[in-house]
Design a protein that fits this description.
Helix content is 17%, strand content 35%. By secondary structure, it is α+β, with helices and mostly antiparallel strands. Helix 4 packs parallel to helix 5. The longest helix has 15 residues. The relative contact order is 0.11.
Length: 422
């Protein structure tokens, strides 16, 4: 008999965002609860915690507000990751905080997301933080956005309220790049249009949120054209049996590579061929993004961590000068002349800030040309110089080779996230 194991389910990464008290935690709890993603002991603990608070209903928000500090304040202050599965897909869900001072956490959650779920309170409409999160999602090129107009039960399930918010958000979204936006009217508290269709909103003809998340097309988002293989480490076992073994391990962040193909190693520029590919200890004939593999080359070249393998006629840009959009995450400001470590794929170099061009007002998208620095949670355009060449692509072409982080030299803390322009 052949292999009877079921095919692995497609993985989809979600990021939820919204203003304070828009109901993100309740929505995530509802998704987990109604999709039967909770164990019995989790349900029992949830019921006990709800009773301890004197509530006469199960408080679904408690499923995600795991930190004691946030429970006591009734807010979410960190990125919490949740995992759940349906018959069609497996989901990793990043719950980003709503407070403006935690915008940096939204950047973290959205940086790898396939789908961004933005909550809007039906009573309040589009507020500054909703605009901020939508703008960040567009900057980070989250391919799909779903705007959930929550708390429809508090506005009498009024279609006109929903339509007005949809029109306002659509108008705002025309000012930045976003490829796919969907709108769903929901009541996370009562489950309307979250997992099942709402009997109270017969005027809504679209699918419930979970159905939309199961069907949204994410497979085509990977760049399978440009071969990009940042070398993470060189494998050379020091044993007699493996005396001639030399492999280069890492994760393909773009393209497809096959045994026998001509490739080039950057930044040296030396050409060679792929002699062997391995994944999970076995030889394979081809690999594609985002697989983790070990690559063997025909020639004995000097290849180390931070180098990149690509095709000779399709190379990333080799440069020591970058222009980028920066999301600043540190209490100390980014100013011209400041020095940082810059980590790009598997390569870390020293960098200095040459210029701050402007800072975005995330509410109006106005560019403040007078800005001389970027402060905590600011977003702006900057120029940097690096101590050694980097192999980069524009962020719009490849999210992995087009992004980097700046690291504080003294504390080793992440200070900012950048997206290469081009």
């Amino acid at each position: 008999m052949g292999d009877q194991r079921p095919a692995p389910k497609e993985l989809v990464r979600l990021c939820t965002a919204g203003s304070v008290d828009d109901g993100k935690s309740t929505l995530i709890g509802r998704l987990l609860y109604d999709s039967k993603a909770l164990l019995e002991d989790q349900l029992e603990a949830l019921e006990r915690a709800s009773l301890a608070r004197g509530l006469d209903h199960v408080e679904l928000a408690l499923l995600t507000d795991g930190l004691r500090a946030e429970r006591e304040q009734g807010i979410t202050i960190d990125v919490a990751y949740r995992y759940f599965s349906t018959p069609k897909r497996t989901f990793i869900l990043a719950d980003a905080p709503g407070h403006p001072q935690y915008t940096r956490n939204m950047v973290t959650g959205a940086s790898t997301a396939d789908v961004g779920v933005i909550l809007v309170d039906a009573r309040k409409g589009l507020v500054e933080q909703s605009r901020r999160h939508a703008f960040i999602a567009s900057l980070l090129r989250v391919p799909h956005l779903v705007v959930c107009v929550n708390k429809m039960d508090l506005v009498g399930f009024d279609q006109e309220v929903f339509e007005a918010i949809r029109e306002e958000f659509t108008t705002f979204a025309t000012r930045f790049e976003v490829t796919d936006i969907s709108f769903v009217p929901i009541s996370a508290l009562y489950g309307d249009n979250v997992v099942t269709r709402s009997a109270s909103m017969g005027w809504y003809e679209g699918a419930p949120l979970l159905h939309h998340l199961e069907e949204v097309h994410v497979a085509s988002e990977a760049n399978l054209v440009d071969l990009r293989f940042p070398v993470q480490c060189t494998i050379r076992p020091r044993t007699p049996a493996h005396a001639d073994y030399r492999g280069y391990a890492g994760r393909l962040v773009g393209g497809v590579v096959r045994v026998g193909e001509e490739v080039v190693v950057l930044p040296s520029g030396f050409g060679t061929r792929v002699s062997r590919l391995e994944a999970r200890g076995a030889g394979i004939e081809e690999a594609f993004s985002p697989m983790s593999v070990t690559v063997h080359l025909e020639d004995d070249l000097d290849v180390s961590r931070g180098d990149m393998i690509s095709r000779a006629h399709n190379r990333p840009t080799l440069t020591q000068s970058l222009e980028a959009v920066m999301c600043w995450m540190a209490p100390s400001a980014l100013v011209p002349g400041s020095r940082w470590y810059l980590k790009h794929t598997t390569r870390t170099v020293k960098a200095v800030v040459d210029e701050v061009f402007y800072r975005f007002d995330v509410s109006t998208l106005h560019r403040d040309q007078e800005a001389a620095s970027l402060r905590l949670n600011d977003i702006g355009r900057v120029a940097l110089r690096t101590s050694a060449p980097l192999m980069v692509d524009p962020y719009r072409r490849n999210r992995a080779t087009g992004s980097f982080i700046l690291i504080d030299e003294a504390t080793n803390a992440t200070a900012g996230a950048g997206m290469v322009l081009g």
